[in-house]
Amino acid sequence: MTHLIEAIELTRYFNIGRHQRVHAVEKVSLAIAEKEILGLVGESGSGKSTFGKTVVGLHDKTSGQVKLRGETLPQHYRPADFQRYASRMQMIFQDPYSSLNPRMTIGEIVGEGLRLHSSLDDKQVKDRVAEWLVKVGLQAGHMSRYPHEFSGGQRQRIGIARALILEPDFVVCDEPISALDVSVQAQVINLLGELQSTMGLTLLFIAHDLSMVRYVSDRMAVMYLGSIVEVGKADDVYFTPKHPYTEILIGSNPEPDPELERSRPSTAISGEIPSPVNVPAGCRFANRCPKVMPVCRDVTPELLPLKDLDRQVACHLYT
């Protein structure tokens, strides 16, 4: 299997004082195959978005590497690096309201990448923008309008067109439906699925909704406090989770049937998530884990493959 994107012990810290830093992402190793959709799930503050932004170069890497088709990407992006890699890696942002410049027309927003990263003339850019607006379910005549004239779902379609008009190889979808009405979410997901299939895209799909991630993704990775705790085929992770955190996370996912939801036992995670500034020793989930053992509080578990299963888990229960 050919890896399009590979993160190797990728780490991103944020300094918040002279002697303090936020451990947002720490030693994460993940590989995403060509034309694969990898879903990344976890609680708010687990580091999912930071990981995605660091992979595409929007955040500098504190340490570790990111490889694109085997080529090691720069540790710190300069303007020339953005120029070189923007046509190959793009990002669809979470908030369709704040991610579009209100002073630019839709034609300017969607066509900006082409103007910066291609040799097309103004007419060719305009024609390509019109083509892409139709592809995402809008009208070519919308080019002269401004973002405030569109609904949230329409704005996200504009964001999708802006990201994909350069025909990138790899796209990070950073919770692309979380700010949308439920009635619109399925439409956007189906649009992304169609475009991924026709263009042969490789996606990192970041989301809170585990059932949606299972539906969309080929594989699923579970993140907790900046580290990956489980990786495997999406259906396998969803239906037979191995890490205690994954079990509880999936158990807390609401049932679509109200009767089943009312009758099932509570699976809320007890305790508070530790501070990413003062990360505990050992397993980061130890203070909330119902299966905690003495070794968990002292020794950090490695992400290792499970015997006879296409799964990786970072848990002392399996060592």
Description:
The chain has 319 residues and is α/β, with parallel strands linked by helices. The chain has a domain at 3-88 and 168-249: Rossmann fold, CATH 3.40.50. It is built from ten helices and twelve strands. The protein has helices at residues 48-55, 79-85, 106-117, 122-135, 152-164, 182-199, 210-216, 234-239, 244-251, 258-263, and strands spanning 3-15, 21-33, 37-41, 63-68, 71-72, 89-92, 170-174, 202-206, 219-224, 227-233, 304-305, 311-313. The strands form two sheets. The chain has an eight-stranded mixed β-sheet with strand order 6-7-8-3-9-10-12-11, with helices on both faces. The protein has a four-stranded antiparallel β-sheet with strand order 2-1-4-5, covered by helices on one side. Helix 3 packs across helix 4, helix 3 packs parallel to helix 5 (152-164) and helix 5 (152-164) packs parallel to helix 6. The chain is globular, with a radius of gyration of 21 Å. The two termini are 27 Å apart. The relative contact order is 0.14. The model has no long low-confidence stretch (mean pLDDT 91).
